[in-house]
Design brief:
There is one protein chain. It is globular, with a radius of gyration of 21 Å. The protein is about 85% helix and about 0% strand. The strands form 2 sheets. Strands 1-4 form a two-stranded antiparallel ribbon. Strands 2-3 form a two-stranded antiparallel ribbon. It contains 13 helices and 4 strands. The protein is mostly helical and about 350 residues long.
Amino acid sequence: MLILGLVVLTAGAELLVRGASRLAIAVGISPLVVGLTVVAFGTSAPELVVSIQSTMSGQPDVALGNVVGSNIFNVLFILGISALIVPLRVSQQLIRFDVPLMVALSLIVLIFAYDGRIGRLDGLLLTIGMISYTLWAIVKSRKEQAAIKAEYEAEFGVPEKTSSLIGTMLNVILLVVGLGLLVLGSRWFVDSAVKIAEHFDVSKLVIGLTIVAAGTSLPEVATSIMAAIRGERDIAVGNVVGSNIFNIMGVLGISSLVSAEGVQVSEAAFQLDLPVMIAVAVACLPIFFTGHLIARWEGALFLAYYCAYTASIIIAATNPELTDTFAIVMFGVVIPLTAITLLTGVFRHIRKGSNNAEE
């Protein structure tokens, strides 16, 4: 079932990326916006289902952990492994609007959580924000694509129509089937992985902190990797940023609306996990802004950060006495690595500007 789940995930990601990229051209929406909306929202379906189910079953605090954990996983693991496959170029729209929005939303969640919960009013505001963001992204993209099309037609004439109703419907079917396979494959993978871990007497706490947390983000993993392999870099990066935005406004917002008492925020989550989510979002800024590129070595650095974060969770859960020692070691490693990342990004940006000036 574990292997079958991975196969279904891969097939679903292939169909989703293929259908979404073709629909982007047919409907007049840029691939980046498709990645930020349709693909991102679709691959976040497992997070939405898990959060709503946990809220309805009287465990609304699980919803927050699901969102926070997925957002950290999305940036550090998915962008990291995708950049290792192929360096990811970052769109101007992501740099100017979507990444700053992701950072702002992370900070807003921390503010909402100050009183120990994210209430229904907070959830309503987040949900309204999600709807507004989606409509804005689609309308803006259609206007830009229309302007590009008009400029092209004025220069080269009206191109022949290559899309048809049947072709469009087929792409919609591919997209829907792809989403369904992603959700199904992720469920099979998580269930089988948990059973295998239990068979080897691994504690359920560690399973929840590792396998299950990463499992709900498997659709994003499969989709972004497949998009990177197929050369759809806008979808690969847009999927991660869009998923994080949807997780906060959509998953957390709807979960807060469903629960009468809202989503509870534990002291540990407020002091550690939420700040880590904010730090991860902020970490995107120097890389995205300075070079407009996520290089392979930066992807490796993201993966190293995720391994360090996961190790800290496992150590805190299994060997609390080693937590302080591990924290000291990580502090001595992470800070220098971050400084190197920032300096290298700035240097690359300056060198790029110098080369452009010479040309």
